[in-house]
Write a structure and sequence with these properties.
With 321 residues, this protein is mostly helical. The chain has a single domain, classed as Mitochondrial carrier fold. 45% of the residues are buried. Keywords: Membrane, Mitochondrion, Repeat, Transmembrane, Transmembrane helix, Transport. One of its GO terms (molecular function) is O-acyl-L-carnitine transmembrane transporter activity.
């Protein structure tokens, strides 16, 4: 009996098991870091971008003639509620920001793993632009099921009380209770299809734009971890601009329709196509582009803050585990 050979085979088997365990632990740690850093980055995004988002939502849902433009909407918000009025409705995204952004960045990490798994014969660990985009699109799928109800609650809080309207809800939990009484779970998740149709291509452009910009800023002979904060901020801002530049028509139009579907009384629209038809009939095609200015103004600073928060927290987490 060749005991030496048997011993070697046993040793190799143990080594393989240990390698698999290390790979699994590394993968789990990577997912956990992506989840936590994504949540922190989302908080940074909300605090930076919420005033822009509030003005955009009011422009998208207001009756014709209510505002002369974004500047007029800001002035009226400040006169009526002061500076704090620009943060009306901020509680829902802050409460939901950790799961939404955490799931998004966790989904992006998962998307990258899927790309690697689907290309076992790859010769380079570096991703192409298309592969970054695929991973980004995958990130939008789990994110949507968290984002849709949170955004529905947010826009309902943002628009109440404008133009002398009724203040119906006291907070996010009151919104959720009211929506459930009106139409059950379906009412809470109204607008999910429109959210996914918007966020799929948007996320693909978002993450691909960030990775490509970051790669271009890396000095020769350096690694991504060597990038300074200025480069991270610029790459993050460009990620937001890329998202809008590539997905302007569907993104802007779907946001208008999604906001109207989510804020309209139950039964107003049978779906996104019905909403588009009625919106165009009532306000013209230009109605689909309402809020475009504030959205573009928000794109750079909010997303720069997002990736700055993500990268800073990720470095801190790398030191912990």
């Amino acid at each position: 009996m060749d005991t030496t050979s048997d011993s070697q085979s046993s040793s190799d088997a143990v080594e393989d098991v240990l390698q698999d365990q290390k790979a699994a632990a590394k993968s789990a740690a990577s997912s956990a870091k992506a989840f936590i850093s994504g949540g922190f980055g989302g908080i940074c995004a909300v605090l930076t971008g919420h005033p822009f988002d509030l003005i955009k939502t009011r422009l998208q849902t207001a009756k014709p003639g209510a505002y002369n433009g974004a500047i007029d909407a800001v002035k009226k918000a400040l006169v009526k509620d002061g500076v704090t009025g620009l943060y009306r409705g901020v509680v829902p995204p802050l409460l939901g920001v950790t799961p939404i952004f955490a799931v998004s960045f966790w989904g992006y990490d998962l998307g990258q793993k899927c790309v690697v798994a689907l290309t076992p014969d790859r010769t380079s660990p570096q991703f192409s632009t298309a592969e970054y985009a695929v991973a980004g699109f995958i990130s939008a799928i789990p994110q949507t099921f968290v984002a849709a109800p949170v955004e529905r609650a947010k826009v309902l809080l943002q628009i109440q009380g404008q133009a002398g309207g009724e203040v119906k809800y006291k907070g996010v939990l009151d919104v959720v209770r009211g929506l459930y009484r009106e139409g059950g779970i379906r009412s809470i998740f109204r607008g999910t299809g429109a959210t996914l149709a918007r966020d799929g291509p948007g996320s693909a452009a978002y993450f691909a734009g960030y990775e490509i910009t970051k790669k271009a800023l890396i000095p020769a002979g350096s690694s991504p971890s060597d990038l300074n904060l200025g480069a991270v901020i610029f790459a993050g801002g460009m990620a937001g601009v890329c998202m809008w530049s590539i997905a302007i028509p569907p993104d802007c139009n779907f946001k208008v329709l999604k906001s109207r579907i989510q804020t309209a009384p139950t039964g107003t629209y049978t779906g996104i196509i019905d909403c588009a038809r009625k919106t165009i009939a009532a306000d013209g095609v230009a109605a689909l582009w309402k809020g475009f200015g504030p959205a573009m103004a928000r794109a750079f600073p909010a997303n720069a803050a997002t990736f700055l928060g993500v990268e800073a927290s990720r470095k801190a987490l790398d030191k912990l585990f």
